[in-house]
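User: Structure tokens for this complex, please. No commentary.
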Amino acid sequence: MTHSELPRTLTPTDRTRLRRFKENASFERADLEAILDAGFVCHLGVIVDGVPMVVPTVYGRDERYLYVHGSVASRSLTGAADDADETICVTVTHVDGLVLARSVFEHGVNYRCAMLYGVPRTLTDDAEKTEALRLITEHTAPGQWDYARRPSRKELAATTVLALSLEEASVKISAGPPDDGDSADAELGLWAGTLPLTTRWGAPTADPVLPASRTAPAHIVARAGTRQG
Amino acid sequence: MTHSELPRTLTPTDRTRLRRFKENASFERADLEAILDAGFVCHLGVIVDGVPMVVPTVYGRDERYLYVHGSVASRSLTGAADDADETICVTVTHVDGLVLARSVFEHGVNYRCAMLYGVPRTLTDDAEKTEALRLITEHTAPGQWDYARRPSRKELAATTVLALSLEEASVKISAGPPDDGDSADAELGLWAGTLPLTTRWGAPTADPVLPASRTAPAHIVARAGTRQG
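Assistant:
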């Protein structure tokens, strides 16, 4: 299925249908993809011995799947046979700013958040695994797949890669000023507004063991100063 | 128990003892506290209908507990009686940069991450609840507890606040250059190093309904340009 054949809206399930803050829900595939593409790490939720475990990890994606290294979920995968449900949750969050209202109660956060649910598939085919590692690398460190040494056969065998369908997703977006500007609290005469939060890449720092003559490649230098998120 | 009476090291449990990347583990209480204090949102992991759910939310802390609004965990709390284990996981992650190695396999992320596990307690005492809301507010938006209107009795009643002990914690810290500088890959002659990632607060944006004469208070203006994380 090519991208153009994928439905442009996401089908809500009981899990992804928002029960609170319905005004923030989006079921546009484009919003999901934009949030995933703008992200750097996701937070992976797995159940280990009956307890939720939330682990940050890098990821990549194509049109159908999100890919993560299996090692971070290894404790879950190892014990998967014991678990009734192997469904995992992957959350990507961008914090765009703080919403400062007239009352403490109305304070909030502007954010973009995507949550995916599904039973991940462990990749076994070497070509599929290599392509997933390329997607993770190029999402995390664009340009490095062609610059750095690619995984050897041995490294590939040592790496577990999981694919999670993008099909079951919940997308929430909150933006804009506080909404108590027309409430009784507006009479308090307080300042209200937002304080933006921005994440940027800095200048590359060379490994101290490198000779000073070894300068960073253009694709790394070009990222310095750009926004992440 | 005052802070000085708390043990300075954290006692590892089966859950918090690192099974991989042992070199990154810290069991120093000071590291845990520094990571929590530097954070803005946490990712809360709960089990809902047997499935992990990872939700971003703001938080606050004192010397013994981390506090979150219960609403974000409401789906879990509502169904808590059905769940065998009500343990939750709270993860706070700072991404400090990308580690660019000579091989794709050795690429990584410099980060500071704290994971807390425990069965949260729902606060019922109004004074304790108010203090927890003060801590969440002052962690998220320093100065606003004294500036904005504080929660009314009705708002307090409408807010669920959870306290999670800081006792069972896993702290991981990864920093520094790639470690393949003395491997065979060093002979490839590639550049290697790190690309730092920094998050900063921007200039405040006033709610458009405010008159232009209403300027932001000093504690908000002072935050602009400062680093978060």
